[in-house]
Amino acid sequence: MTMRTTIERMALGAALLLSTTLSAQEARLQVIHNCADLDAALVDVYVNGALLLDDFAFRTATEFLSVPAEADLEIAIARDNSTDVSDAVYTENFTLADGRTYVMVASGLLNTSGYEPVQEFSLLVFDSAQETAATTGVDLLVLHGSTDAPTVDVFESAVLNSGVINDLSYGEFTGYLNVPALDYQFEIQLSDGTPTGLGYLAPLGTLGLNGAALTVLASGFLNPALNSDGASFGLWAARAQGGALLELPPVQVATGTATVQVIHNSADAAAAVVDVYINDELAIPDLAFRTATGQVSLPSGVDLNIGVAPGNSTSSADVIATFTFNLDVDGKYIIVANGTVSGSGYDPVQPFNLDVRADARFSAALNTNTDVLVYHGATDAPTVDVAETSVPAGIVVDDISYSQFQGYLELPTADYELEVRTTDGTPVARYDAPLETLSLDGRAITVLASGFLNTANNSDGPSFGLWVARASGGDLIPLELSVGLNERTAPFEATVYPNPSNGALFIDLDASSTSVARVQLTDMSGRVVSQLSAFELSKGSTLASMDLSSFANGLYTLSVISDKGVRSVPVQVAH
After folding, report:
1. Could you give the percent of the chain with pLDDT greater than 70?
2. Taking a C-beta distance cutoff of 8 angstroms, is the pair 125, 94 a contact?
């Protein structure tokens, strides 16, 4: 048809209009092209042998036309290179009632291969159409015209918050739905209510459509790969004046929920208390450092913009950091707020971040166990190992670096002793982990390295320690420092007290005959900050002391250096 002139096309189309003028009876008809078959991207439409529509494009519509009523109308569809009605690939006869208004939709597929499932081409007709709304507002007629889409429901979530269409199958029209001229969000669900993740905006108010009647069509393919890479699924609207169909903008909608626990482990004083916003709405107010939420349900399958603001914020405009997550349906997550928001006063600076563990547990796999997830959240601590020294089980966490998770450790519920070591084996600190005493059987917990090894370099912030977040949330539980060192291979025992200390530190050595060269205290950089002169130990108990009153808060290592080797005790200074 590309060789025909505009005048010739107008003359052919006028034949139908002339027959209408000579007839005393007429109907009104709008034709919509919704056949997503690639071979039908452009079609020619003949009525009673005369060309009505030349190169009629997919996802376009005619205006409402006056056509003869109570008379046979042979409507023929041909591909766009047709020369006359003899080239038609589909023909169907209709008799329209006098005074009635119709919408006719070209739908289905011309091809029987390359598409799955195959829905044969047809002209779908609605015989009670409207050109304007019956009253005020907007009247919506809906057609399910997507050949590979199942039976669906439609839920409106922005204004009505209710279902608007139930059990609509391919080829079916709904009746007209009258709604105020507002902006809506339609979410498509399976007929059993399962979310599909497909959502569309219908900006009826923004577009000024009060008083209009629209035909909304499900159009295209849910799975283009199985349908010759044809047009993707969407909702499109035909207006009474015809022309290109109006695409309803797609939006993300939740496909279910995920379960999340948020743990606040940022030791920056500027983030001591924070508010958490989700998609600009306040979701978690006043979350304090070293506290955790319980298990929070959040939408899955959609982008969640999570903003963190200082406590007592007034709106999402106060957020100081924003992160985007898309959670899996039924997923379980632990999100740890960590790092520093301040640009100075901390060394090293680790930027504020939300670190995520995607396979979280909120109970143990076995009721007799405690499942332990370990998180390295101390900004100035090096890569470390964690050893269990009371069983002893040896290394249980290997080479964990800042911001990393390791686990889950599935431990029989008992009381343990955990020693944090640098990767060369040097002890950093030792902690009691009283899982049995805390009645944590059947529970899953997160153990976090928290605070600063060197508080003097970090605005005198909280000291390093291991803290436990329970699945139920609330204040984190500190693991207490082990007060002494009892190396099973050592020829003597060492007890250090009080630990933590804010002044005098006593070292009680109970040993067999052992020569001690010196007792020294080092900071976490390895610098010797205090040392006792050499002395001899005989059988029995020997007591020595150090004055720590002038030392900065933080963790230190007390080393007893003897002819039998070196024994080290972690010491915490806390004024």
Report:
1. 89
2. yes
Q: Strands (DSSP E) along 311-414, which ranges?
A: 321-326, 332-338, 353-357, 369-376, 384-388, 394-400, 405-412
Q: Which range is least confidently modeled, 363-377, 397-411, 477-491?
A: 477-491
Q: The CATH number of the domain where 38 resides is what?
A: 2.60.40.1120
Domain assignment of residue 319, given as a range: 258-345
Q: How would residue 525 be classed by pLDDT, with cut points 50, 70 and 90?
A: low
Work out the average pLDDT over 152-163: 96
| Number of independent structural domains in the chain | 5
Last residue of a domain, one of 329, 345, 361: 345
From residue 574, alpha-carbon distances to 250, 350, 500, 502, 545 in Å are: 57, 24, 6, 5, 17
User: Of 241, 323, 220, 346, which Cα lies nearest the Cα of 277?
Assistant: 323
Choice among 276-280, 313-317, 361-365, 514-518 with the minimum mean pLDDT: 514-518
Over 70: is that where the pLDDT of 513 sits?
no
| Same-domain pairing of 409 and 392 | yes
pTM of the model: 0.73
By the 8 A CB rule, do 46 and 225 touch?
no
190 CB-near residues (< 8 Å, 6+ apart): 150, 151, 152, 153, 196
Residues 466 and 384 in one domain: yes
Question: In CATH, what number is assigned to the domain containing residue 267?
Answer: 2.60.40
List the structure tokens of 404.
Answer: 């990393």
> Measured between alpha carbons, how far is 12 from 434 in angstroms, rounded to an integer?
91
Per the domain annotation, does 45 fall within a domain? yes
CATH number of the domain enclosing 523 = 2.60.40.1930
Mean pLDDT for the stretch of residues 195-200: 94
pLDDT band (50, 70, 90) for residue 4: very low
Domain closes at, from 192, 218, 252: 252
Residue 458 · residue 452 · CB < 8 Å: yes
Q: Which backbone phi and psi does 440 adopt, to 5 degrees?
A: -100, 20
> 378: which residues sit within 8 A by CB, 6+ positions away?
402, 449, 450, 451, 452, 453, 464
Q: Tally helices (H) and strands (E) across the chain.
A: 1, 48
Q: Are residues 262 and 246 in the same domain?
A: no
Residue 18: the pLDDT is: 45
Q: Say yes or no: 262 and 321 in one domain.
A: yes
User: What is the average per-residue pLDDT within 323-333?
Assistant: 96
pLDDT in tens, 284-313: 999 999 999 999 999 999 999 999 999 999
Domain membership of residue 81 (yes or no) is yes
353 in any annotated domain: no
Count of alpha carbons within 13 Å of 261, Cβ hemisphere only?
25
pLDDT at 22 over 80: no
How far is it, in rounded angstroms, from Cα 477 to Cα 306? 26
Q: Is residue 214 part of a domain?
A: yes
Spatial separation of the C-alpha atoms in residues 234 and 146, rounded to whole Å: 9
